[in-house]
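re: the backbone from monday

yeah here it is again, tokenized this time
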């Protein structure tokens, strides 16, 4: 599967992560736990981009979901071998890094069994309902879980490696999971024609479980997790995608409705 140049670009976000690393069924996971009361039988799976949950941006998002009342688990299905995020700072390093070799070690056929181990263990702890939010690489896994109706709500942020319209049509015909797509203007992985196809397939009430596509004008693939927050419309896009995700989770059974915090 191919990547685009925006798959390995980004900006490291400022902030101090507050979650904890836990080993769940042999898989390291970054976990955000709400400080107050929350529904302990429900978990949001945070499915990362190729930089893994070691990326501070990912940890801050997990923490943000926890602050909104969602127990959030981000499995490290790259086993501490995510793409190094020092690539953000060097065009030379980005050019030298061989993504295809990395992907040969960490394709979905390798990552998915590790994700499944975490899900099995969480079920053993009493979790009965899962939602999934995925970014880039993780957006593909959101679709795969929904194909099997493992989850109860899907959020795919600028997803990578989807075949359009094939995967969209498969989702429509096999899944009962409400789908939120957070999309943008510049995205080789999920370009404007694919976004339009999604609207045709799912929109106007055709997908009865629920469908919504948010569009963040002027943003680029990766904006919802790695965008440059010094640029006002990118910051607005990142925050808008997060807010849309929180509202989607509220709508489909995760914690009572209340205002999202950024």
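seq for it, each position gets an aa:
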């Amino acid at each position: 599967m191919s990547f685009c140049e925006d798959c390995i670009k980004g900006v490291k976000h400022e902030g101090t992560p507050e979650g904890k690393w836990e080993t769940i069924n042999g898989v390291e996971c970054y976990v955000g736990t709400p400080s107050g009361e929350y529904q302990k039988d429900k978990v949001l799976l945070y499915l990362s981009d190729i930089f893994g949950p070691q990326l501070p941006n990912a940890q801050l998002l997990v923490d943000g979901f926890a602050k909104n009342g969602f127990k959030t688990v981000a499995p490290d299905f790259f086993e501490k071998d995510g793409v190094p995020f020092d690539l953000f700072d060097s065009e030379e390093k980005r050019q030298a890094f061989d993504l295809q070799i990395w992907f040969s070690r960490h394709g979905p056929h390798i990552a998915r069994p590790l994700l499944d181990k975490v899900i099995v263990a969480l079920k053993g702890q009493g979790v009965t309902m899962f939602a999934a939010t995925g970014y880039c690489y993780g957006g593909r896994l959101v679709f795969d879980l929904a194909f099997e109706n493992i989850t109860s709500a899907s959020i795919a942020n600028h997803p990578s490696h989807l075949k359009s319209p094939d995967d969209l049509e498969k989702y429509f015909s096999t899944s009962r999971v409400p789908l939120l797509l957070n999309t943008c203007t510049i995205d080789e992985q999920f370009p404007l024609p694919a976004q339009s196809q999604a609207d045709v397939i799912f929109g106007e009430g055709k997908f009865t479980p629920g469908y919504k596509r948010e569009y963040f004008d002027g943003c680029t693939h990766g904006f919802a997790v790695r965008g440059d927050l010094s640029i006002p419309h990118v910051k607005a896009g990142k925050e808008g995608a997060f807010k849309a995700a929180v509202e989607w989770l509220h709508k489909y059974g995760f914690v009572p409705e209340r205002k999202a915090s950024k």
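The beta strands are 20-24, 27-32, 42-47, 72-75, 129-135, 153-157, 179-186, 211-220. Residues 24 and 139 are 22 Å apart (CA to CA).
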